[in-house]
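Example record used in the benchmark description.
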Amino acid sequence: MKRTRKYRKMVPVKEVLQHPKACFVQNIFTPNGSAVLVPNKVPICDLVASLPEPERLIRSLESQGIREVELEFRHPLDVQKTKALLEEIDSSFRVVDAQLSSQVVEDLSDIYSRLTIDQKFHFPRGEVERLGGMLAEEVGKATHILMSLVNPETADTYTQTHSLNVSLLSGYLAKRLCELKGFHPSLVEKAIQAGLLFDLGKATLPREILEKPEPLGAEELRIVRSHPAESVRIARASGVSDPDILEGILHHHERWDGSGYPDGLTEKKIPVIARILAVADTFDAMTSQRVYKNAVSSKVSFNFIMSANETHFDPDVCRVFLSGMGIYPPGCVVELSDGTVGTVAASTEGNLLQPKILLQEGDQTRIIELCREAHRNLFIKRALDV
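Model output (structure tokens):
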């Protein structure tokens, strides 16, 4: 699960000093608009440090008739503690083995490094198949796939980590599609292998283009859009022959309405593995921090995918994504009906509206299950993520 959590909330001016680590969302100007009275993106504790007395900040705001301000908060998430708490309340709780995930990233890093030096390098197909099989076994047992996703340790390992995350999400979605639509169980392992290999072609492309923060020119866009075919070339040269895997890799940027590439395929003409990869790739890419863009929350990414149902993405894949994540996906920061702010720790199978909520009260952390009788009067008022 991604660890960075930010949310925004309206706060009465008189309570601003109670949140020293929060920042103002907007600059607040003097009455004539000629100067910034209170700058945004600066922790409140730093703002008041330069004042003779902290209350001066409050008086300055109130003198302009401001009674409420919007603050941005950072919401820390201790993933290991969250896992431990979930294990206490749910004996079936299971995530993908962390050591296996680390091994996959290490192996992918080696493959990418070699491809960067030698575009004719053939990766060890047997090792990729072995890891894919082990990941498929783990995904089959995992009950909380988002808790299994990992963050890149450095910017240099983003693509490898992204490939691992996409393979895990793809395997999870494939598993649920098999249950919903009756696909052969082999779809899970094939989707995972495709996820491991789908971005290999990027290792052969200029890094300055892949990480360019400005809009790409026509030739640069053509180069970037060549990566699915490059990935297929590398996979085929290394001995991958399964057409389902190769076609999934080639078409993972196709879109349901035909607006994708390389062939502008539509709807069910897009291979099923490609349709799965499209959702998994989008979700993990949006929630990842990059040099050219900021990460968004799991809720924002989830909302985008659901809004693009039947335009960009396969409705069946979106349906299993929704049923597996819930309306408030794990990692989403929410405000409860009693005003408490918490983080969604896990979805509740078969219940989209009542997930398990992680609450931090001082030094104490606990998880409540909204579906339990003890919390029948509590509900999620709104999502706060940005």
